[in-house]
């Protein structure tokens, strides 16, 4: 068995926000892949608290983390090292008239039609299931 050093296991809160048949996505500026909005859970926070905090930090908007949709585990190579994450997935609610713009200069948000999630290179790939099952739940 080949030995390697695991780069880390991250615990992340992610939000599913669907409006008018479109899913809110985030990506690094210039990046080819996208992901559900959210971020790392800090020590002492719940997943819901982390999601609301991350949305406030990244967009300046108030939001609410609703129904728990499940867990998506993901392992991949990052900068040549094995990496893993555990995604806690919640419904994400923001005001219907809210304009979602990044307050951080390295990311951007977009509303992507559910039918085109494959074109967004949404990761982890399990989230692409939302294109045909918008109310999907996820089990690890």
């Amino acid at each position: 068995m080949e030995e390697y050093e695991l780069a880390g296991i991250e615990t992340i809160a992610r939000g599913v926000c669907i409006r008018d048949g479109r899913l809110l996505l985030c990506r690094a500026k210039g990046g080819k892949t996208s992901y559900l909005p959210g971020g790392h859970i800090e020590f002492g926070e719940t997943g819901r608290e982390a999601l609301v905090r991350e949305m406030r930090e990244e967009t300046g908007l108030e939001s609410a983390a609703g129904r728990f949709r499940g867990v998506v585990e993901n392992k991949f190579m990052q900068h040549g090292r094995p990496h893993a994450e555990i995604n806690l997935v919640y419904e994400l609610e923001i005001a219907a008239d809210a304009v979602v713009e990044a307050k951080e200069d390295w990311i951007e948000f977009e509303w992507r039609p559910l039918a085109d999630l494959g074109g967004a290179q949404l990761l982890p790939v399990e989230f692409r299931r939302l294109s045909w099952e918008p109310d999907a739940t996820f089990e690890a």
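The first strand starts at residue 9 and ends at 16. Residues 118 and 125 are 9 Å apart (CA to CA).
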